[in-house]
Design the sequence.
Protein backbone atom coordinates (compact mmCIF):
# COMPACT_ATOMS: atom_id res chain seq x y z
CA UNK A 1 0.00 0.00 0.00
CA UNK A 2 1.53 3.35 -0.98
CA UNK A 3 1.86 6.11 1.57
CA UNK A 4 0.77 8.83 -0.84
CA UNK A 5 -0.28 9.61 -4.40
CA UNK A 6 1.41 12.08 -6.71
CA UNK A 7 -0.26 15.49 -6.74
CA UNK A 8 1.90 18.06 -8.56
CA UNK A 9 5.35 19.55 -9.06
CA UNK A 10 5.80 23.11 -7.76
CA UNK A 11 8.39 25.41 -9.31
CA UNK A 12 9.76 28.46 -7.52
CA UNK A 13 10.04 31.48 -9.80
CA UNK A 14 9.98 35.28 -9.81
CA UNK A 15 6.85 35.58 -12.02
CA UNK A 16 4.31 32.74 -11.69
CA UNK A 17 1.98 34.15 -14.36
CA UNK A 18 4.57 34.26 -17.15
CA UNK A 19 6.11 30.87 -16.26
CA UNK A 20 2.67 29.23 -16.09
CA UNK A 21 1.87 30.66 -19.54
CA UNK A 22 5.20 29.36 -20.90
CA UNK A 23 4.39 25.81 -19.78
CA UNK A 24 0.77 26.11 -20.95
CA UNK A 25 2.13 26.98 -24.41
CA UNK A 26 4.50 23.99 -24.26
CA UNK A 27 2.06 21.39 -22.82
CA UNK A 28 -1.44 22.78 -23.38
CA UNK A 29 -3.96 22.91 -20.57
CA UNK A 30 -5.48 25.57 -18.38
CA UNK A 31 -3.81 27.95 -15.94
CA UNK A 32 -5.83 28.37 -12.75
CA UNK A 33 -5.50 31.08 -10.08
CA UNK A 34 -6.81 28.91 -7.26
CA UNK A 35 -4.64 30.35 -4.47
CA UNK A 36 -4.05 33.98 -5.40
CA UNK A 37 -1.41 35.68 -7.52
CA UNK A 38 1.58 34.09 -5.78
CA UNK A 39 0.54 30.52 -6.66
CA UNK A 40 -0.80 29.38 -10.02
CA UNK A 41 -1.45 25.88 -11.32
CA UNK A 42 -1.34 24.48 -14.82
CA UNK A 43 -3.76 21.62 -15.35
CA UNK A 44 -2.31 19.85 -18.40
CA UNK A 45 -4.56 17.76 -20.69
CA UNK A 46 -3.05 14.45 -19.48
CA UNK A 47 -3.93 15.17 -15.83
CA UNK A 48 -0.47 16.39 -14.80
CA UNK A 49 -0.41 19.51 -12.63
CA UNK A 50 2.45 21.98 -12.39
CA UNK A 51 2.34 24.76 -9.82
CA UNK A 52 4.27 28.04 -9.94
CA UNK A 53 5.12 29.80 -6.70
CA UNK A 54 6.40 33.37 -6.44
CA UNK A 55 9.75 33.54 -4.67
CA UNK A 56 11.24 37.05 -4.44
CA UNK A 57 14.96 36.95 -5.16
CA UNK A 58 14.65 33.61 -6.94
CA UNK A 59 18.03 32.37 -8.15
CA UNK A 60 17.82 29.80 -10.97
CA UNK A 61 19.95 26.66 -10.78
CA UNK A 62 23.18 26.55 -12.75
CA UNK A 63 23.17 23.59 -15.09
CA UNK A 64 25.03 21.16 -14.98
CA UNK A 65 26.63 22.01 -11.62
CA UNK A 66 26.29 19.58 -8.75
CA UNK A 67 27.53 21.74 -5.88
CA UNK A 68 25.71 24.35 -3.79
CA UNK A 69 23.55 25.57 -6.71
CA UNK A 70 22.69 22.31 -8.47
CA UNK A 71 19.68 21.90 -10.72
CA UNK A 72 17.77 20.09 -7.91
CA UNK A 73 15.23 18.71 -10.40
CA UNK A 74 14.29 18.99 -14.03
CA UNK A 75 11.29 18.15 -16.18
CA UNK A 76 11.34 15.79 -19.19
CA UNK A 77 8.91 16.15 -22.09
CA UNK A 78 8.53 13.51 -24.79
CA UNK A 79 8.31 14.90 -28.34
CA UNK A 80 7.72 13.35 -31.75
CA UNK A 81 9.81 15.80 -33.81
CA UNK A 82 12.85 17.07 -31.86
CA UNK A 83 13.79 19.85 -34.28
CA UNK A 84 10.26 21.23 -34.51
CA UNK A 85 9.78 21.05 -30.74
CA UNK A 86 13.10 22.82 -30.23
CA UNK A 87 12.08 25.59 -32.60
CA UNK A 88 8.80 26.02 -30.71
CA UNK A 89 10.23 26.11 -27.17
CA UNK A 90 12.94 28.57 -28.23
CA UNK A 91 10.27 30.81 -29.78
CA UNK A 92 8.38 30.66 -26.47
CA UNK A 93 11.40 31.91 -24.53
CA UNK A 94 13.41 28.81 -23.58
CA UNK A 95 17.21 29.08 -23.48
CA UNK A 96 19.37 26.29 -24.92
CA UNK A 97 21.69 24.66 -22.38
CA UNK A 98 22.93 21.49 -24.13
CA UNK A 99 21.75 20.79 -27.67
CA UNK A 100 24.56 18.39 -28.65
CA UNK A 101 22.62 15.15 -29.03
CA UNK A 102 25.34 13.58 -31.17
CA UNK A 103 23.32 13.82 -34.36
CA UNK A 104 20.39 12.03 -32.74
CA UNK A 105 22.44 9.40 -30.88
CA UNK A 106 21.49 10.89 -27.49
CA UNK A 107 17.74 10.91 -26.90
CA UNK A 108 17.44 14.36 -25.28
CA UNK A 109 18.35 18.04 -25.48
CA UNK A 110 18.49 20.38 -22.48
CA UNK A 111 16.94 23.85 -22.16
CA UNK A 112 16.07 26.33 -19.42
CA UNK A 113 12.60 27.78 -19.02
CA UNK A 114 12.25 31.59 -18.72
CA UNK A 115 12.88 31.37 -14.94
CA UNK A 116 16.03 29.28 -15.47
CA UNK A 117 14.75 25.78 -14.54
CA UNK A 118 16.31 23.04 -16.68
CA UNK A 119 14.02 20.82 -18.78
CA UNK A 120 14.63 18.26 -21.50
CA UNK A 121 12.95 17.48 -24.76
CA UNK A 122 13.21 13.70 -25.20
CA UNK A 123 12.68 11.37 -28.14
Sequence:
Amino acid sequence: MPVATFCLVALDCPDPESLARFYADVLGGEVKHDNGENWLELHAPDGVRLAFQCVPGHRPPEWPRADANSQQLHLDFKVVDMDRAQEQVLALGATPLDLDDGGGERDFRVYADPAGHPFCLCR
In short: The chain has two helices and eight strands. The mean pLDDT is 88. Residues 9 and 72 are 12 Å apart (CA to CA).
